[in-house]
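Q: Convert this sequence to structure tokens.
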Amino acid sequence: MANNQKYDQILDALEMLLSQKHMQDISVSEIAQAAGIAKGSIYYYFSSKNEILEALIERRYKQPLETAKHLAEQTDVSPFTRMAMIFQACRNSNSEFLNQNSVTSIVDDKEQAFLHHKYIRYLITELKPILTEIIEQGITSGAIDFDYPAALSEIVLIVLTIKLDRSLLPASDNDVEDTIAGLISLLEKGTGAPAGTLNYLKS
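A:
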């Protein structure tokens, strides 16, 4: 990146504008003006307004994902423990997203769903290879017995993100906890993990 400062200025500008108006009402020209740069400069970094939004979401959740990547490298830690920590990071990240008033305070249901779609796709795409690697390490070590690690990762992440999101599938706290408990039970039985191994996710 030739100029990280300008890149961050663009993201800061969109974040600020999102606290004032709907995404659909924000133009690239407005983002450029708020960032204090020429409109043409934005296209050096981003091809569209949509791409700026995706980069903003990525920046917001960069730290949890860096933590997840670090966990994948800790081969001295049980794969089940690392899986549970990934799940908890997913849960924490979702809570943080829902609590970000600067993005969600004024949006209507349609735009909320749009923003959540972007967030969910990003989270699943980024976490799937990390979780798959951890499961594969568990298979190699003999701790996990499962034939489809990538599929398992995707299934788990889809269930968690959609259920925790609640905008796509409304649910009470009890509904969410029941789904998580059921998912934990299926994972433990399906992978041969001792009962209670993934209970970190319930906290």
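Residues 43 and 187 are 45 Å apart (CA to CA).
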